[in-house]
Amino acid sequence: MDDYMIKVMTDAKDLLGVACLTTTLVEDAALRHDTYPTATAALGRALTGCELMASLLDPEQRVAIKLEGDGPLRKIVAEAEGNGAVRGYVANPHVDLPPKNGKLDVSGALGKDGFLTVSKDLLFKEPYRGVVHLYNGEVASDIAYYYSESEQIPSAVGIGVFVEPDAGVTAAGGFLIQTLPSADEKLVDDLIARIESMDSVTSQIREGKLPEDLLKAIFDDIPYHVIEKRYLAFVCSCSRERIEQAITTLGRDEIGKIIAEQGTVDVSCQFCNKNYIFSREELEKMLEEH
Ligand SMILES: [Zn+2]
Predict the structure, then answer these.
(1) CA 240–ligand 1 middle distance (angstroms)
(2) Contact (Cβ atoms closer than 8 angstroms) between residue 88 and residue 50
């Protein structure tokens, strides 16, 4: 099934909700990066979280998140565009820890001491940047904490990724609910109570629930309407031309040294792990054109 997100607004315009299914793109990312189960869950949560954040943006805007912790995973990076494209990686894809309370130990892999950095390109002159301490290293709560601390928008975030014992991803998705300034406290309290009593996102998606169902369960009898549906996918913006440009910026001396010492250049894109090889002839041509 295609990954997608649904965005809704309450009829009273006091709550905004987004829910998404990301099983295919998380599986795609895990295959590209050869991640072990705990790293798969961590990367999958970050990609899903980044897609939820990008759901609030216009198609040509983008958001990037970087979670850095003191655990063996070290760093998770994800970038999403308002058109549904997302890409990302973890610094150490071969992290696998024993489960904790029956769940993949994402906070153990990332570490609880560290930072979440959010950069948004909203097409103004300067990109927006916000940094908060990690809340608990589980990703969803870290994103919710970022919204309340850095943007002063009370938010609830739930993200789930299920990795099979053979390491395949069979369920991934999440939701993001934001309260708008007109929301009254009672409404928000009721909503939080309902979210806390719900089954986890992972179990709901494993049961076959769709983003529409997640939102229905959260909003229940509060009237709301769908404002957008958007398809999501793992897409990387790298290309041979861009890598060539990056090599060119190394300068004449450095390129000459590479030709003398290695003959060829073998570069992998950090975000999607695609491999680019440049032959001696191609490097010499770059040198000539330099
Ligand atoms: Zn790439």
Answers:
(1) 10
(2) yes
